[in-house]
Design brief:
Blueprint lengths: L6 H13 L6 E2 H7 L4 H10 L8 E2 L3 H13 L3 H6 L3 H14 L3 E10 L2 E11 L2 E7 L12 H15 L14 E8 L7 E2 L2 E5 L3 H7 L10 E2 L14
Parallel strand pairs: 5-6, 6-8
Antiparallel strand pairs: 1-2, 3-4, 4-5, 6-9, 7-8
Helix pairs in contact: 1-2, 1-4, 2-3, 4-6
Length: 236
């Protein structure tokens, strides 16, 4: 197990991620000031984190920013790292969380049904479990009605995804259990909206590790031809 990351190191990395969100080049002096530390210490921390820099500034690629966000998340500051990402990077961040939990992933999945196209940000498959994720990189509202339309879309898109040929999703003839999820930046007031699970980014890693295909408390959708839903979901 790697040694714990100090609070000062986390602050420097968080500020590096935050300040580079809308800038191609960030001055190390600005990072040090925002992180309430010295330039020399900030430079040392950036070097140890393998952030490329010259004596005065750094520049991060989108891929490296996502990797840095994951490092910050592992240090226990998951929400702060996610907030510092762009919405495109947030989707990639969610995909990497799925992979770390043992899922095979597919991004920006488009399926057709009911005479239209449906898009799902990230699809994760682990055995016969399918997680479809809509990544909402917005300030989570205090009321569930905000999620209603997004949840309806996510559930319908998941139904049409399950209509795709089985061989494109999993091997074998097991019945797939799909769970539509909306990923939020902060904790929502409820856990369900229109048969879709609402998960905050802080709880995502533990949720993905612990979720099983036949959890009776979750609104799974079966891949049977009649799209029979988990009976327990009717009460949600």
């Amino acid at each position: 197990m790697p040694p714990p990351i100090s609070e000062g190191t986390v602050r420097v990395l968080v500020e590096t991620l935050r300040l580079s969100k809308d800038r191609n080049i960030v001055q190390i002096a600005d990072i040090a000031s925002s992180a309430r530390t010295t330039e020399s210490l900030a430079r040392k921390i950036l070097t140890n984190a393998r952030v490329e820099h010259d004596s005065n500034s750094i520049s991060l690629s989108p891929g490296f920013r996502v990797r840095l966000a994951l490092d910050i998340a592992r240090a226990g500051r998951l929400r702060e790292s996610a907030r510092a990402l762009t919405w495109q990077e947030f989707e990639k961040f969610a995909e990497e969380c799925l992979r770390e939990a043992g899922f095979q992933t597919e991004k920006n999945v488009r399926v057709k049904g009911d005479g239209r196209a449906w898009q799902i940000d990230v699809v994760g498959t682990r055995g016969n479990l399918v997680v479809t994720m809509d990544c909402k990189h917005w300030n989570t509202p205090g009321y569930l009605s905000k999620f209603r339309l997004a949840a309806e879309h996510q559930r319908n898109a998941t139904l049409h995804l399950l209509a795709r040929p089985v061989e494109r999703m999993v091997q074998g003839d097991k019945e797939r259990q799909a769970l539509p999820v909306i990923l939020t930046l902060s904790e929502p007031r409820g856990q369900l909206s229109e048969g879709v699970v609402l998960v905050s980014v802080e709880k995502l890693p533990s949720f993905l590790i612990g979720v099983t295909p036949y959890d009776e408390n979750l609104p799974f959708i079966s891949s049977s031809l009649s799209f029979v839903e988990n009976p327990m979901s009717q009460s949600n």
